[in-house]
Each structure stands twice: as C-alpha cells, then as structure tokens.
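Researcher: Next entry in the queue.
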Amino acid sequence: MLAEKTKGIVCGIVSAICYGMNPFGGLNLYKEGFNTTSVLFYRFGFAVLILACIMLAKKNTFKVSKKELKVLIGLGALFATTSLSLFMSFLYMPAGVASTLLFTHPIMVALIMAIFFKERITPVIVFSIALAFGGVSLLYYSGDGLVLNTIGILLVLLSALSYALYMIVVNKSSIQLPTFKLTFYAMAFCLIFVTAFSFTNESYYIKPLTNFNQLFYALFLSVVTTIMSLCLMNIAVRILGSTPTSIMGALEPLTAVIVGIFVFNEVFTLNLACGIILILLSVLLIILQDKIKKIRLK
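Model: Structure for this entry, 298 residues:
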C-alpha cells in the first residue's frame, strides 16, 4: 500500500512538472521564428497521432455517437481557446506569471458553479477570491515600476475561463468515454480549430518544421507537456484521488516560473513572488474547502 501511494505521489509531482514545462517548448519555438498557431499545430498534431497509435495498440474503438460528437466538438473549441490565449499571453508577459494566473481556473469553476448551478458560495470561496484578487494586483504592479501588459493578463484570464468551462462540460455532460478516447477527440477538434484560426491572418499561417531543434521542441510539447502529463495525472488520481493530485498541481506554475527565470532570464521581483504565493494559497483553499468544512463541524 505504501509503495502504491509513493507511486501516486511521484506520478502527481512529475505530471505537474511536465505540464509546467510548457514555456520551455513554446518559448524556444518562438525563438525559432514560429507563431502561436504553428506551435500549437505541431503540439496537438503530434499528440493526436501518438494517442491514435495508443488507441490502435490497445484495440480501442474510435466510434462515438452524435450526442458525444457535439460535446467533443465543444470541448475542442474550448481547449483551442485556452491554448491559443495562454500561448499568446507568453508574448506579452513572463511565462511563469502567465502560468500562475492560469492556475486561477479552480476559483472560476467554483464561481461558475455557484452562479449557474446554484452551488452555495461559502466564506472559503469569498476569501479565496479576495486572496486571488490581491495576488493578481501584486503581479500587475511589480513594485519596481514595471507594470504587466493588460492584454497579456486578459489573454491568460480568458485561458483560465475557457479551461474552467472545459472542466465543467466534462463533469456535467452525460458522455462516458475512456480517458484516451475523450482526450484524442478533444485534441483532434482542438487541432482543427487551431488550423482554421491560422487562416484568419497571414501572421498566423502555419510554418513548416525545417530543422532538428524545431522538431525537438514540438515533440517535447506533445510528449512531455501533453501525453506524459495526462497519463501520469490519471495514475495519480486513480491512486491518491483528485484532491491530493490537484494540490500537487501547484508545482505547474512554480515550474514555469523556474523555467522562465533560469532558462529565459525573466525578471522576478518580491511583488511577483508575493502575488504568486497569494494565488497559490487561494487555489489551495478552494481545493481543500470540503476538508476545512469538516474540521469546522467537528
């Protein structure tokens, strides 16, 4: 039992670190002259091919009903929105800060569930929102005269909102699909939407891979930040449950911050550090609110 729990902890930690490495692949492809749509086209294109091979090897069926197809198309649109807006935000602000702001999505889930599904807004949720607002304010004004780009903040908040909606749709829809099939179709439709978006402007046209470095970073995004992160997260959730795995997800923005500082020389100030800590605390409170409620009732 102890060995199995240790396995779950290791998988949860590695999964979070893998997802937090998004800036490593994305920013390096930007350095290679790629635009956002090109980065995401290859990230999801390779991921879809890999998932298809896994499903074929496991002899899984690709068949879905019309009802499931409608939901999957919606999930693809939401995932395309969250990916495009997040990776575009990297062009306007430090990737570590963007990844931290993205981590506000559990708070958005709680708010949406309260407003549209009549779930009660608890004092913990109110306090978490206040902490998150304070954290975002500190990130916006870094304390040394540097002010974060408003467009970048709006883009990453759009990314967090669309990701929150993605999670709610998965949770509230009646479709019951295996994880690999659900992810395959969500990413396949995401790939279609990203490709369609690339035709909206000449600056978004998809560029071909022309050297080994570009291929390496594209495969890194597909294999490490997408496939490995997903598979390891599923293992962690199965062994430990969703709450402990969600807590370990705090390593995602921390990893992105470390990558930004040590790989891309991004500026890091005391205000930014305090803002990141406040946002992480606000999210952890949302994740742990059920346990906090039980402690208060004892």
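Model: The chain has a mean pLDDT of 87.
Researcher: Noted, moving on.
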